[in-house]
C-alpha cells in the first residue's frame, strides 16, 4: 500500500518465529511498541503496527541477520548463536537478555570429550563453526557431522560421540538420557541493526534502541 508523502516510512523489524517470540512481546511493550500484531492468528508473514509505523517480518531465526544485513529490514532480533555461527556485517547494539540458554557439549553421562584409543572424537551439530572453534581452542581433534535437528539422537544411535547444541531447561537432554558435558558459551537474544539504517534513521532508531535496552 502507498504511504502518504509526509508519513515517514515504516521501520522494518525482523522477528524470529518460535520460542523467543513469547518473551519478546513484553520487552516490545515496555519499549512503547505494540506486540499485538505479532501474536494475531494467521499465516501472514508481514505484521504491521500502523500507529507506530512498524512493519514486522516473521522469519526463521537463522534468517534474521540476512534480512537486516541486506537492508530489507532495519532492525532484527536474533540469538547470539546465529551471529557466532556466521559472520555478518551488522551492528549489534543491545543485548535483550531474553532467550537465555547455553551452547554446550553434551553426550551420554561420563562420555569423555576427547577421542579415545587413537580415534577422533565425532561431534554432531548444527553449529559447525562454533563447534570447530571450541575444539580447536581446546586442541581436541574432531570430526564434525552436520545435522539440522533432533541432534540428541546422534549419541544414542552411534552417529556421533557427542553433540554441540543449545541447552535451555535441559529437558530435551534429560528426556533422551543425555548430560551436559562441557559449557561453550552463554547465549541470549540481541537486537541487530543495519548499518545504513542506523545512520539514515538515527532519530527514530536510537531512542527505540535505548528503550529496548532498558530492562524493567
Ligand atoms: C533447541 C535445542 C534443543 C532444545 C533445548 O531446539 O536444539 O533441542 O531446544 O531446550 P531445552 O534444554 O529447554 O530442552 P528447539 O526446540 O529450539 O528446536 P530446533 O531443533 O528446531 O532448533
Written description of the protein model:
This protein is an alpha/beta fold. The protein has nine helices and eleven strands. The protein has helices spanning 19-30, 36-39, 64-69, 80-85, 128-138, 153-157, 171-175, 195-200, 202-213, and strands at 11-16, 46-49, 54-59, 75-79, 91-95, 101-107, 121-125, 142-146, 162-167, 179-187, 189-193. Strands 2-3-1-4-11-5 form a six-stranded mixed beta sheet. It has a five-stranded mixed beta sheet with strand order 8-7-9-6-10. β7, α5 (128-138) and β8 (142-146) form a beta-alpha-beta unit. It is elongated and about 70 Å long. The mean pLDDT is 95.
Shape: elongated
Kindly state the percentage of residues in helix.
25-40%
Distance between the termini: 36 Å
- Tell me about the biggest sheet? 6 strands, mixed
Would you tell me the overall average pLDDT? 95
Determine Rg (CA atoms, Å): 20 Å
> How are the strands of the largest sheet arranged?
2-3-1-4-11-5
Secondary-structure element sequence? Answer: EHHEEHEHEEEHEHEHEEHH
Strand-residue proportion:
25-35%
Number of helices: 9
Write a compact overview of the structure shown.
It is elongated and about 70 Å long. With 216 residues, the chain is α/β, with parallel strands linked by helices.
Amino acid at each position: 500500500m502507498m504511504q502518504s508523502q509526509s508519513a515517514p516510512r515504516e521501520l522494518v523489524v525482523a522477528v524470529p518465529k518460535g520460542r523467543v517470540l513469547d518473551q519478546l512481546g513484553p520487552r516490545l511493550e515496555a519499549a512503547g511498541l505494540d506486540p499485538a500484531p505479532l501474536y494475531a492468528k494467521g499465516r501472514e508473514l508481514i505484521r504491521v503496527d500502523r500507529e507506530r509505523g512498524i512493519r514486522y517480518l516473521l522469519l526463521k531465526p537463522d534468517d534474521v541477520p540476512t534480512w537486516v544485513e541486506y537492508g530489507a529490514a532495519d532492525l532484527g532480533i536474533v540469538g547470539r548463536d546465529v551471529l557466532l555461527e556466521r559472520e555478518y556485517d551488522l551492528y549489534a547494539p543491545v543485548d535483550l537478555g531474553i532467550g537465555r540458554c547455553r551452547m554446550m557439549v553434551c553426550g551420554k553421562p561420563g562420555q569423555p570429550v576427547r577421542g579415545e584409543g587413537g580415534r577422533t572424537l565425532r561431534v554432531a551439530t548444527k553449529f559447525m563453526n562454533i563447534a570447530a572453534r571450541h575444539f580447536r581452542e581446546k586442541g581436541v581433534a574432531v570430526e564434525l557431522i552436520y545435522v539440522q535437528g533432533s541432534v540428541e539422537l546422534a549419541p544414542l544411535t552411534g552417529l556421533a560421540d557427542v553433540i554441540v547444541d543449545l541447552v535451555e531447561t535441559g529437558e530435551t537432554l534429560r528426556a533422551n538420557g543425555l548430560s551436559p558435558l562441557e559449557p561453550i558459551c552463554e547465549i541470549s537474544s540481541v537486537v541487530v541493526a543495519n548499518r545504513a539504517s542506523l545512520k539514515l534513521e538515527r532519530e527514530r532508531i536510537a531512542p527505540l534502541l535505548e528503550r529496548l535496552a532498558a530492562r524493567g
